[in-house]
Amino acid sequence: MPLPSIATPTYSLILPSTKEEITYRPFLVREEKLLVLALEGEDQKEISTAIKSVLQACVKSKIDIQKLPTFDIEYLFLNIRGKSVGEEVEVNIIAPDDGKTSIPVKINLDDISVKEFDDHDKFIKLDDNLMMEMKYPSLDQFIQNNFDFSVKSSTEQTFDLVAGCIDKVYNDEETWDAGDFSKKEMSEFLDQMNSQQFKKVEKFFETMPKLSHEITVKNPKTKKSSKVVLEGLSSFFA
Question: In which domain, by residue range, is 186 found?
């Protein structure tokens, strides 16, 4: 006689980007082991594969994980993690007042939300005739931003990210799909921008919805309290 199956609970959440309700289950022991091994190995490809596998296995609704915006991925993964191994995580915060004292802080994952900005816009006007439409970072870019242990410079990462997030460029007469051009061609297109135009691109990323949580910490040495804002999945990963 075979062993009985263990029932797995199902939960639901609202995706921040579309306000669509989706269902998911916690990850199982085999998936937790896959994540732990990938993170311990510090190999970006293995981490990417592990997170993709966990999300695809745990999300029961019919959605394309690859097409979800970064902040949806972060919010979804954090919720799955919370229902899987505990809804409270302990993170170490460096006290802002002295920049060196480590303060352990427990955070309830239910208190973490996606922050949205009123002035966020994915349409960028480059000049009187030329517009650019942006898209949010892909799942692979999300993993690189949150768990990249490489020595690639921050400048290279920034330009790679921007080039990969351009969706379309168009004017009154013609539309250019960024997917039709190579990475080098998109980088050369970015190099033509002046500082004011690139600042508009930077604003797209600065105001993009993001996983965010503000906490107050007290330095046990100086007794001074400070507010700290945690952003991005890696800030809460434990």
Answer: 123-206
Going edge to edge, which strands form the sheet with 131-134? 123-125, 131-134, 166-170, 175-177
In a domain, 177, yes or no: yes
Q: Is residue 10 in a domain? A: no
CA distance linking residue 56 with residue 188, whole number of Å: 35
Q: Which helix (H) or strand (E) holds 89?
A: strand 88-94
As for how many domains the chain has, the answer is 1
86-103 confidence digits (pLDDT tens): 788 888 899 999 999 999
Can you list the pairs that 93-96 forms with residues at least 24 positions away whose Cβ atoms lie under 8 Å? 93/215, 93/217, 93/228, 95/217, 95/219, 95/221, 95/222, 95/224, 95/226, 96/217, 96/226, 96/228
pTM as predicted: 0.78
| Domain membership flag for residue 181 | yes
Distance CA 12, CA 27 (A): 14
In a domain, 138, yes or no: yes
Distance CA 9, CA 23 (A): 10
Q: How many CB atoms lie within 10 A of CB 149?
A: 10
| Alpha helices per DSSP H over the chain | 29-41, 44-58, 70-85, 139-147, 154-164, 183-191, 195-206
pLDDT one-digit tens code per residue, 101-144: 999 999 888 888 899 999 999 999 999 999 999 999 877 777 76
Handedness of CA 197, 202, 207, 209 (dihedral sign): positive
Cα distances from 10 to residues 28, 113, 117, 167, 204, in angstroms, run: 12, 20, 31, 35, 35
Question: And the tokens for 119?
Answer: 């002035």
Reading the block at residue 204, the tokens are 């797209």
